[in-house]
Structures are given as structure tokens and as C-alpha cells.
Amino acid sequence: MDTITIKDIARALNLSTSTVSRALRDSYEINAETKRQVVEYAERLHYRPNPIAVSLKENRSRVIGVIVPQIANLFFSQVINGIEAVAYNRGYHVSIFQSHESYERELATVQQVVARKADGLLISLSSNTVDVSYLRQLQEKKLPIVLFDRASKDLDVPSVTADNFAGAFAATEHLIQMGRRRIAHVAIPASISIAQERLAGYRFALEKYGIPYDENLVRHAGFGPNEVEPIVNDLLIQSPDAFFAASDRLAIGCLATLKKWNIAIPGQIALIGFTNITVADLLDPPMTTVEQPALEIGQVAAGRLIDLIEGKQKTVSSDPVKIATRLVIRASTQAGL
């Protein structure tokens, strides 16, 4: 079927195109009966506004760019679901890109977003991103930017993250309350903002309960497929009675290595992760983890960005939005569950 236009509606109803256009916008200038005729006819013929024409008229693309380190990561896919839901409801399309944890690829991807005339940018920084001056330059050119999950203290833009400090504190405190004292922490790369926040929460819990912080019990793992096992093997020399992994991906690696050594979980060593992936309760044993509010992070981040685009926030606050996490206790830390 041919796409119906405002001109087609105007011709059929013997009205001017400007009258039809104003009627579809519910203008006060058009009387109620004319509006009714126009709207009913448009609905009957499934009229939809031409997005290109609308963009030209509003001088906006109604597209927002979203850059994540990796779409295959369940957390980021859930964040994208939240972003898309809000964007769709507010009349925006979403273009999604991956940096694959590469600063160079992130930089090239942001350039693509700008070249495509996106109205704004949502970005979670790659693990290799240290210099954010290119984003600062875009901010100075008035491109609305909101960071999510991974932020930077060197960039004065809004950010939306989980409360990583509180989540890590709750995880570590739970292990301490279960009688654990030598808690190993397998962290994500130190360059990522959330790594520092989770490490700080871990250290604060130890301090609260009078347990000395031991650097020998902390290791940082990258995103390679075979990085966790040697780290766990090295940590086992320190005789830990628990592992707190800064992501469920790392926690599953810990679980696999501990099983290779026939170590009873939680009898000999307790294990806790961070994310609450969908299979966490299907593992053997089911894994205690900190649930990140991924969907809500996406929704809030998208809402803030669109508010900036539409001028609903006249001043840009750099105060971060931190969304509460939830500790989900299962058998990997508490026998009998």
C-alpha cells in the first residue's frame, strides 16, 4: 500500500494541508468537528507522520545513540531494554553500538553517532577509556550526554549507576555474618569506575567489623576467557574462606575452579557474585549475588537524556544518580538454602 500523506487527507476532505496539519496537532485554531473528521480519516487509512519530514521541521533526528562495551553481556542487554522502552514511549529511536572494551573503537563509534546527527548520547565507558576529553569537547558543543553504569569523575555530565558501594558492602557484610574472615575479592579491571566503588564497599565492611584489609586477598581480572582460573589458584595459597567476585562472570569462573579442586561450597569456601544473571539460581550450588537494577538504570538514564534534549532540565547537574541494589541470598553462602 502507498503511504498516505497530509496532502492525500486534505484532498479527500477538501481541506487545506495546513488545516489538516494543525488538526492532527490538536491545534486550538481548528474547530472540534474538523478535527474529528481529520483524525477519523487519518486513523482509518493508518496515517503515520513522515519521520524525516518531522525531523527536518523540528531540527532534530529523534534518534539517541547508545554505546555499550558488549551487547552479549546480559546486564547491558537489560539496560538496553530499559532505554528502548522509555525512548519508544517518548517518540525516539535508538541506535546501538559496541566498543568491545576498546577506547579506539569507542572513539570511532562516538564519531559515527555524531555524524548521524543523533540528538544525544548514552554511553558506558570501555575498560580502556582513561582520556574522556573527546566527550568533553562534544559536551562543549552542546551535545546532551549521560553516562550509565561506568562513569568518569573527569566528565561533568549526569550519570546513572547502581549503588556499587552499598552492594559490595552488603555482600561482604553477609559473608562476615556467616562467619567468614578471610574474604578474597576478585575485582574487574581497576580502570573502571565501578571496580573502585565495589572495592571501597568491600574494604568498608571489613573495617566496620575490625578485619584488617589484606592486599594479598585482592586480584583484578580482565575480560579474557581464561583469566579467572590462575587468579583463583593464586588466591587459594592465601587460605581464603570466601570469595566475593565483582561480577557474576567472575564468580562463575571462581565456581568452576573451586570445583576442579573439589572444594565444598559453602562448607569450605563461600562464594558470592554481583549482577544476578538469570542462571544464578540454577548453578550448583545456587549462587548468592548482588542484583543490579539493570532495567531501571536504562530507564532512568534514557529519561534524563531525553529531558536534556528537550530542554526540560535547564541546568545540567553532575550529581550522580545511584540506584539501590539488592542482595539475593542462596546456597553458595548459606548452607541449607
Topology:
Blueprint: H1 6-13, H2 17-24, H3 32-44, H4 51-58, E1 63-68, H5 74-89, E2 93-98, H6 103-115, E3 120-123, H7 133-140, E4 145-148, E5 159-162, H8 164-177, E6 183-187, H9 193-208, E7 218-220, H10 228-236, E8 242-245, H11 248-260, E9 270-275, E10 288-291, H12 294-309, E11 321-323, E12 326-328
Parallel strand pairs: 1-2, 1-3, 3-4, 4-5, 5-11, 6-7, 6-8, 8-9, 9-10
Antiparallel strand pairs: 10-12
Q: Brief overview, please?
A:
This protein is α/β, with parallel strands linked by helices.
Major beta sheet, specifics?
Answer: 6 strands, parallel
Strand content: 15-25%
Helix content: 40-55%
Strand order of the largest sheet: 2-1-3-4-5-11
Summed up, the domain count is 3
CATH superfamily descriptor of the largest domain:
Response regulator
CATH class of the largest domain: Alpha Beta
